Amino acid sequence: MPSCSIKIVSLTLALASSLTISLAGFAQTSEPTSPWTQKENEAESSFLSGAYREAEAKWKEAIALAQKDSNRLNLAETLNQMTHLFLKQHRLDEARSSLQAALAIREKELGKDNPKTAETLGNLALVEHKSGHDADAERLYKEVIEIKRKSNNSNSLAITLTNLANLYGEMRRIEEARKLYLEALEIDEKTYGKDHKEVAQDYFNLGAVMYHHNYNKEAIEYLDRALALYEKLDDGPGTVKSLHYLGLSHAEEKSHGKAIEVYRRALTLHSKIKGDRHPDTLVHQLNLARTLDSDGQSKEAEDLYKDAIGTASKYHTDARVKLIECAIEYAHFLKRHGRRTDAENQLKEVLPAYESLSAHHRRELYELPRVYSDLLKELKKDAEADALAKKHLDVFGPHHLSKAPPEPEAKQPAKLQEPSKSQAAHKAKPKTATKKATKK
After folding, report:
1. 187 assigned to some structural domain
2. Global pTM value
3. Phi, psi of 3 (to 5 degrees)
4. Number of folded domains in the chain?
5. What gap in Å lies between CA 374 and CA 347, rounded to an integer?
6. How many other CB atoms are found less than 10 A from the CB of residue 77?
7. Domain coverage including residue 98
8. Is 423:20 a contact under the CB 8 Å cutoff?
9. Bridge partners of 238?
10. C-beta pairs of 306-314 under 8 Å, 24+ apart in sequence
11. Is residue 87, in this structure, part of any structural domain at all?
12. What is the dihedral of CA 102, 108, 114, 117, to 10 degrees?
């Protein structure tokens, strides 16, 4: 069993972007209360409230109305807006088709350099990004950036620069990513002033990407700036995510005292914001426990592990994923302290819960049978180890893979274009401390 802890898959902070949605007067018709306008706004209101089936039905009605009126720009608007629903439900092929149709209309009716055309092109880039088509996403992002540079739309340009930087971060093109993040930072400071949430997000983006590529000292510098600004703005969620990544960075630098300090602050603040039994709060608790153990404070660490497992069992009965994540972390702790039999019992206890998960979640949490099998071998139980490994190897077969589940619900700000960076880049979904293979 390796010494590093697992990644909390359901809460992993991603570098990918997301879309946002508008409720405002974007309609191409001259009648603000036309049937199409009304249906479009109803669809978006339903989407924002989480009524996705109702939203889809209303968007389809809006499409029918636009086609009936032969209003191609209204049709393009709805096709563009409806994409957010497809992305929320991971229906990427439908999102792509919808945007391609909208793009064709806008290029013909408005021209390739029109802001509306750039809007759809940027959304298409996001779809390719989420689909893992890096070359296509990069090409489209660059096209959008070129259009926005010509139109002098600095705020919108900063968003696309950030989205392309996110992609470069995933591709490990770290210096290119840093350059784009810094340009976005410069734009936002000129646009909003230095004491603004967008500026804080820029610093956070820089810190997060530095951490993800093992540049921990640089990460700490940027994250300290983000933290100071978020605290000045009294932004609780921004403060929590900055503390969270500061803890990860300090832990990687073996500065356990500093990591423990910021993890405690993150845990306390997140408990106030979301409650001490919230699944995300448990992530901060697990990170604190691991760092305490690394600092020799094993008694408090074990108490935190046990409390996390108890919380996941008692308060999150439907969240078996969370229970398994906590159990694996505790099993790592037990093994580090030579308590192999206790670790075996812990993993054995949660194995049925793991086996009841969807193929997607079993694949994401394959750490459990792998660790369990390795532990059985160490305990000289080779036959059991081989049987366990063989039983769960099929989770990687293509016929077992399921689509990724929808992302957690979130309030949406006001435009289905490319998102504001606080929505698009580095979403603050906490994770436990695990380090990437990327070398300095």
Report:
1. no
2. 0.79
3. -75, -20
4. 1
5. 12
6. 28
7. 34-152
8. yes
9. none
10. 306/330, 308/282, 311/277, 311/282, 312/279, 312/282
11. yes
12. 20
Q: Is residue 290 part of a domain?
A: no
Q: How far from 291 is each of 30, 145, 304, 333, CA to CA, in Å?
A: 61, 42, 11, 11
Q: Which residue has the tokens 């570098």?
A: 15
Structure tokens at 267: 């845990």
Categorize the per-residue pLDDT at 432 as very low, low, confident or very high, splitting at 50, 70 and 90: low
Contact (Cβ atoms closer than 8 angstroms) between residue 201 and residue 422: yes
User: pLDDT digit string (tens) for 340-354?
Assistant: 999 999 999 999 999
Distances (CA, A) of 393 to 98, 225, 255, 375, 388: 37, 45, 38, 17, 9
Q: Which two structure tokens, joined as six digits, stand for 109?
A: 């009716």
State the CATH number of the domain containing residue 90: 1.25.40.10
Confidence of residue 379 (pLDDT cuts 50, 70, 90): very high
191 is a domain residue:
no
